[in-house]
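Lab notebook: predicted structure, single chain.

Context: the supervisor wants predicted structures on file for every construct in the current expression panel, including those that have not yet been purified. This is the next one on the list. No modifications to the sequence; it matches the entry in the shared construct table.
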Amino acid sequence: MEITVVQSAGFCFGVKRAVDSVYALSDSRDGIVILGELIHNRYVTDDLKKRGVDTVEDVCDCASGTVLVIRAHGVGREVLSRAQKRAGEVVDLTCPYVAKIHNIVAQHSACDYDIVIVGDKTHPEVIGIEGWCQAGAHVISAPQEAQSLVLDKVCMVAQTTANKNNFDNLVKIVKNNCQEVIVFDTICKSTKIRQAEAEDISKKVDVMFVVGGKGSSNTKKLFDICAKNCPQTFHIENFEDIPQNINYKNKKIGITAGASTPSGSIKEVVRTMEENINSHGVQEMSFEEAMEQSFKTLNTGDVVNGIVVEVRPTEVIVDLGFKSDGIIPASELSDDPEVKPSNIVKPGDEIQVFVVGVNDAEGKTLLSKKKLDYIAGWKKIEEAVENKAVLSGKVIQVVGGGMIVLVEGTRVFVPASQASDRYTEDLTVFLNNTVELRITEINPRRKRVTGSVKSVLSDQKKAISEKFWAEAEVGRKYTGTVKSIMPFGTFVDIGGVDGLVHISELSWSRIKHPSEVLSVGDTVEVYIKDIDAETKKISLGYKKAEDNPWAMAQEKFNVGDIVKCKVVRFMPFGAFVELMPGVDGLIHISQIANKRVGKPSDELSIGEEIEAKITEINWENKRISLSKRALLPVEENQAESQQIMEEISAEAQGEQPAAETEPAADEQPSEQTPQGNDGVGDTEENQSDGE
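Prediction complete. Output recorded below exactly as produced.
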């Protein structure tokens, strides 16, 4: 006799999660009520009743203050809301695969899609899904029902235990009849695997047993699939249903079980069949041993694929399509301490994992993603060493003497001297940054890897520098970044090469320090004023010609204009006034008042605002002459003239005026005064011509 047991027989992840949770609750709590049968299996239901766990068909039947359990099938939005108001506590054990369908139909029905559900309209899972649709749903299970649908926008989903072949066939029909169809294949992976295995095995055996509750939808579908291939297919709930009139000697026997069938029920069937076989004198491996072997299909070191069904803060639950749950601890997802499980995977993702260990006692399988990442990453690192390739990674830790960079799942040590192309005292500035590096050394035996960021940066800067000097020319414009500020100017990075903007090039107005105009880190537009290819020095211009205040002044001022101005500084021969920012003019000492003035400060004050008349303009040399005296009343001018005539007459008679203590105001002083950076000459010789 040959016995074949499908690998996926028995509880799926969602059912096992729900059953285990309720049993755990019953051990510690009283007053537990389930909304509907937990699973379609009367043996589990009866056992829970013995533990004091009751079942109600409607929320209103639940006594207030009790613990109400939502089973794996899930419920509609309105039912869930009523449950939360009625019960003292709601424990929602909706299967993650079913909850995913709830989200899909809720989002698409809100966007005016008609929802089409492939499934049994009387099944609690389908009723729950429909409860998340804003305007109900079209539930179909046969081709004629699909043919009747003529809709504009359709979102199509399936009951998680629907028949895969039937679903695909109905999708084709709906797509032919409707305008826009979005399809979500929401049949859970366990169901697909179980159906595929059942179909395959049923073609190879003489007798097929499908173990599960008579009310279980997915068990009925398994029976239908197997019956098409094996005439002697039997749907049994327990050992009492095993046919007694069949000779199993020299027969090939296949066994599968529905998603709501506990392993205890399967083993009872197995023991009964074993007794039946032994009573006929057949001495072979026990049927129970065969069943147990089928359950132990995972081994440490295996690499398997699975579907993420739940993401928790500290672990990820993976459906592997086997008897045991797969758990990836957060520490086995990645070496990056900053990464959360939800940043790496989400429910529904397909993932390849490494089996770290199998714990049959608890039914859990410990998995690792980072081990596979490490294995794949090590190969890439070995290739990178050979090819001297550049890799990228994230700085995850600063350690003594350097930092750790996570590259392709492998920890690479970068010494402090190789962390940058310039000295960096505090390496924590690189934490969580992505950097490029070269692998400089590997130790296969100790699995240690050393890398250099400096090597890559140096090559990059060299390439940038060569490109820059090949293209650089006077007048070329660049967008740069202010790197440092000195008293004499600012250094700007214009693409891997630094140039100097002299303080005189920063503003058309007088400034005392470059920090008045720019700050480190500012982005600026500059152009090359001068290049010294031998010394690799670059002078940059920052001021724009269109911002030249003298150019604007030329359009604004004319000889004869009366203007308001501000006194900004004094010289022995006169006072300089500001006509507008960056443009100063000179009021000669003789043009300040209608009397002899000893020094400008006798009549004026710094910061004082006055009116003056423009008497002369020299745009080429940036000089403007003004007169305050020209605006004084005529009588005062005549009085001053009379005083001057009297003084001249007295001098002719040999008398000296008592007030004459300084040279006449119209005599030119011989001293020179400094010239400002705005181009205004500060000597009387330059400013008083024509006065």
